[in-house]
Amino acid sequence: MIEKDQITALIKVALDEDLAGGIDITSTATIPEKSESLAHFRVKQDGVISGIEIAVEVFNLCGVEEISFNLSDGDFVEANSIIGKVNGNTRKILLAERSALNFLGKLSGISTFTNQWVKAVAGTKTKIRDTRKTTPGFRRLEKYAVRMGGGINHRIGLSSSALIKDNHISAAGSLTKAFHAVVDQFPDVTVEVEVDTLLQLEEALAAGATFILLDNMNVEETKKAVEIVAGRAKIESSGGLSLESARDYAEAGVDFLAVGALTHSAPVLDISLDFSETQ
Question: Based on the number of CB atoms within 10 Å of its own CB, is 136 exposed (0-12), middle (13-18) or buried (19 or more)?
């Protein structure tokens, strides 16, 4: 998870979107100021939960302190399960409701989708990794959700490690030049090299690369690449992957699958907040 002050800042942005006009018109008009309610969180689909801490903080910031969950981030839940409850001022609960569910549903969706990929390659050595294809401002949260789903994180940012891609190669003049330029200036940094062809793969190995990303190679090309590498480097496949093909790539012998869809295309997990009692 990220630092609490960063979480608070994100929540305030979300709440400000709802309160741009100053008040909740509907609740102010229909609900007595001192009304109290009990509501339960219900998950409408099978999934892996993520974002509980944020949901709790949303309600706390809105002045609701009696909120509890009966499970933890990373836990699997079945459809129609009640996972928590909140008790307090009705207006304040409704003020917090949508933002809390937005965070909880989005992050749980990422965890759930990641877990589907993890299960697809179960029994192989292949790990599922995310990318930097994240929602602006939400990278650390989304990468946290990936971990809760059983995946692992690629670099958090451009200063975490080096990934030499085609544009870097073009700018440097060749793959070999690009690789040595990075190694010479940043000798202690992990360097991954992206290759599009088996010929580039050979060049990367000759340059000394020990971490290679196979970009948009089909399964047969991937098998040949694994044979060529012969354990001399870690191998990651990226591009053109799907849940249906994930196991084929894993069984080809790669160490990682880089899946941008974990964060940019994960369906939101459907979670509702249902009122049980109102006074």
Answer: exposed
